[in-house]
């Protein structure tokens, strides 16, 4: 194009050739390209060398498209960029089309295209002017875009301010609606009401100095106070489960109720619920009555494993849940929680111990069998059968418990093979903590029937039960304890270097002591029963105004019958025992109202009953030469020793009662008849007939001493009355 332009400036002759024209350097035809063409072809080499490198100059040699595009994108808005793109595209297409047309046409018709070139110059000038106008328009558009952008930014800022105002209005509207929402949710959804109040509380407190906000706060305060009162009422309901109790206390804490009061209320309600769980478990247990004076309910129907499982899932689970809730609600304040949980856990463990007392259930069965009424002609189970059943049941239960415990030492249990566990478990836990402790507890429980004072109005332990328990403890001393310890050592062998164990003889001594105490108590109870009959018979009779005796009193016959029944009862469980050799005339021995040393026909042949003599002096002389009788001495484990003890207590009571009465002649004779009747039958039950005879002689001597007219009845008449009676 430079050549074409130069050629047109040299001349317009048809004969001019491009070579000649191109080689001319005349000054008339060449001028510097400008406007669009200049931008299209770029500056000259000299201008390019003089100008500083500009990568954003689209017409310069150092043009960089990436830098140019970055600058345009950062400075021009989107509309301007789109317009600029469209204009540049049109320019490029137009220039390319024009330049191609000019190139082809001028190259072929250069000589004939002089006018056309001149016209093109004009067109180029017009085009340059148009491009200048376009640039001015583009600048105006850019300024307009800047103004539009500023307007948009101002509108956005005003919109943000408007949104803030609207949000503030919504918050104010929400604060105004707080009392209504609290009133609506307080009865149906207290937790939602608390959340609403918690969100509004800080704002209301901050702007409380404003009257409108203070009114809203006061109304909200009244609603939440009423809600707190309803929550406290609900807190005292007995039907709350642990989760509801925790939620109720948590809401009260959010209402800023006193923490001390809430902790006490929480533990009180939790204690009531746990107490109900313990009462449910306790209902399955026999009554805690170690003395045996209360009626024992039937054994529980559930298995011990079911009992423990229910206790663990109900009581223990609830206790752990409530303890965790207490810590979560009240933090590290465990001063009340620890004694509270310890007391309940102690009660629960005591219930577990009572549930394992199978022995008490067996005793309940025995007592029920002894007290059950029997139809005439039908006898109940005898004492040997009850003893065998009791011993077998207790021993079988102990074996079953050992079998349960042995599961902890199975081979598939990982910790069972550890030496420190096995040694401690076999000796400390099983032998000492289970077996030895059970034997000692059994002895203490059995002995409690004799040592424990009976409650007022409660029935005493039946004498047959005392006798049966004495025999059971004696059997434990003789064989059962040795068998149990041997069985335990076989199933749970102790280690050589393990802790010391309780020796078998020590347990046997405890069992024998319990048996001795029970048998002594049995003698005292039975002796007291017979003595009570004799005491009432003496205290309720008029011994001064009584008539001449013709029969043995009925109470004496009842005494002999009761002693005979006791002899049969004791004989079922204990051996006969050893008696001293009896004299040939024991049953026919004369019973005198004086001492046996003055009996006529034996020691004093010249004695006559009517001879005056100081009976008090004779009684004292007799005591000097007679053996002292120990009334409450320990009895031996045989029948004759037990019966002797009962007879001694009975006759000693009769003696003391007679000493307190004043008798007439016939009263003395009635004592003579009664004493002879007792002598005829009681001597055969005692281990030594001299004990019976000696006590009866003291009774007769005391009666003679207390008699106003001591005239005895003839011995033959006494015998006749006793034989007839």
Regions with pLDDT < 50 over 5+ consecutive residues? 1-33, 290-301, 594-613
SSE arrangement, N to C: HHHHHHHHHHHHHHHHHHHHHHHH
**How big a fraction of the residues is strand?**
under 5%
**Using DSSP, what is the number of strands?**
0
Quick one: biggest sheet? none
Alpha plus pi helix count: 24
Secondary structure: helix percent: 55-70%
* Rg measurement, Å: 62 Å
Briefly note the structural class of the backbone. mainly alpha
- How confident overall, as mean pLDDT? 75
Q: Calculate the terminal CA-CA distance, rounded to whole Å.
A: 175 Å
Detailed description of the structure:
This is Vacuolar protein sorting-associated protein 51 homolog. It is found in: Golgi apparatus, trans-Golgi network; Recycling endosome. Keywords: Endosome, Golgi apparatus, Lipid transport, Protein transport, Transport. One of its GO terms (cellular component) is membrane. Residues 1-41 are annotated as: Disordered. With 725 residues, this protein is mainly α. Among the domains are: 267-288 and 298-371 and 380-525, no CATH class; 541-576 and 633-724, no CATH class. Helices cover 69% and strands 0% of the residues. The chain is built from 24 helices and no strands. Helix 10 (242-254) packs parallel to helix 12 (304-330) and helix 19 packs antiparallel against helix 21 (639-659). The longest helix is centred in the N-terminal third of the chain and has 75 residues, at 114-188. The chain is elongated and about 200 Å long. The termini are far apart. 26% of the residues are buried. Mean pLDDT is 75; it is low at 1-33, 290-301 and 594-613.
């Amino acid at each position: 194009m430079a050549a074409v332009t130069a050629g047109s400036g040299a001349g317009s002759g048809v004969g001019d050739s491009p070579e000649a024209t191109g080689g001319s350097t005349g000054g008339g035809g060449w001028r510097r390209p400008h406007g669009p063409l200049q931008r299209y072809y770029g500056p000259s080499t000299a201008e390019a060398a003089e100008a500083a490198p500009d990568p954003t100059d689209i017409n310069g040699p150092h043009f960089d498209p990436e830098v140019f595009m970055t600058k345009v994108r950062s400075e021009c808005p989107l509309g301007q960029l789109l317009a600029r793109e469209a204009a540049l595209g049109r320019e490029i297409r137009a220039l390319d089309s024009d330049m191609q047309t000019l190139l082809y046409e001028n190259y072929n018709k250069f000589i004939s295209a002089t006018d056309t070139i001149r016209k093109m110059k004009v067109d180029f000038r017009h085009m340059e002017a148009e491009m200048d106008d376009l640039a001015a328009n583009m600048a105006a558009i850019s300024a307009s875009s800047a103004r539009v952008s500023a307007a948009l930014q101002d509108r956005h800022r005003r919109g943000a301010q408007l949104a803030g105002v609207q949000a503030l209005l919504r918050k104010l509207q929400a604060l105004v609606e707080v009392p209504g929402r609290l009133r609506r949710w307080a009865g149906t959804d207290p937790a939602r009401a608390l959340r609403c109040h918690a969100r509004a509380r800080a704002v209301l407190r901050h702007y409380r100095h404003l009257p409108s906000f203070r009114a809203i706060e006061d109304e909200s305060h009244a609603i939440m106070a009423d809600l707190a009162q309803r929550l406290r009422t609900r807190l005292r309901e007995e039907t709350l489960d642990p989760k509801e109790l925790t939620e109720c206390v948590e809401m009260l804490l959010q209402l800023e109720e006193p923490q001390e009061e809430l902790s006490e209320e929480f533990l009180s309600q939790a204690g009531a619920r746990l107490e109900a769980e313990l009462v449910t478990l306790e209902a399955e247990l026999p009554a805690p009555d170690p003395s045996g004076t209360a009626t024992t309910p039937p054994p529980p129907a559930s298995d011990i494993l079911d009992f423990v499982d229910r206790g663990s899932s109900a009581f223990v689970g609830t206790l752990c849940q409530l303890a965790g809730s207490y810590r979560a609600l009240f933090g590290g304040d465990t001063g009340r929680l620890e004694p509270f949980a310890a007391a309940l856990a102690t009660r629960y463990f005591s219930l577990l111990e009572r549930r394992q007392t199978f022995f008490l259930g067996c005793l309940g069965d025995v007592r029920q069998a002894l007290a059950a009424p029997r139809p005439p002609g039908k006898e109940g189970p005898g004492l040997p059968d009850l003893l065998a059943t009791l011993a077998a049941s207790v021993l079988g239960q102990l074996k079953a418990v050992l079998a349960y415990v042995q599961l902890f030492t199975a081979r598939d249990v990982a910790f069972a093979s550890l030496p420190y566990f096995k040694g401690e478990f076999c000796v400390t836990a099983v032998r000492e903590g289970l077996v030895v402790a059970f034997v000692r507890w059994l002895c203490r429980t059995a002995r409690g029937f004799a040592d424990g004072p009976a409650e007022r109005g409660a029935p005493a332990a039946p004498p047959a039960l005392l006798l049966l328990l004495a025999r059971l403890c004696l059997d434990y001393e003789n064989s059962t304890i040795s068998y149990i310890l041997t069985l335990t050592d076989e199933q749970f062998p102790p280690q050589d270097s393990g802790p010391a164990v309780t020796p078998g003889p020590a347990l046997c001594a405890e069992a024998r002591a319990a048996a001795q105490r029970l048998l002594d108590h049995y003698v005292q109870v039975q002796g007291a029963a017979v003595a009570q009959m004799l005491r009432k018979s003496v205290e309720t009779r008029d011994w001064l105004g009584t008539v001449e005796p013709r029969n043995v009193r009925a109470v004496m016959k009842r005494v002999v019958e009761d002693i005979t029944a006791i002899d049969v009862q004791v004989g079922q469980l204990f051996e006969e025992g050893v008696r001293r050799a009896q004299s040939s005339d024991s049953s026919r021995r004369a019973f005198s109202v004086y001492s046996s040393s003055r009996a006529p026909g034996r020691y004093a042949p010249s004695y006559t009953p009517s001879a005056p003599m100081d009976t008090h002096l004779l009684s004292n002389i007799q005591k000097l030469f007679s053996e002292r009788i120990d009334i409450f001495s320990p009895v031996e484990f045989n029948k004759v020793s037990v019966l002797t003890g009962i007879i001694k207590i009975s006759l000693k009571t009769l003696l003391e009662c007679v000493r307190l009465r004043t008798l007439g002649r016939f009263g003395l004779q009635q004592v003579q008849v009664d004493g002879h009747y007792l002598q005829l039958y009681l001597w055969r039950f005692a281990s030594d007939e001299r004990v019976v005879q000696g006590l009866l002689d003291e009774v007769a001597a005391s009666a003679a001493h207390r008699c106003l007219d001591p005239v005895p009845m003839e011995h033959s008449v006494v015998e006749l009355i006793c034989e007839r009676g």
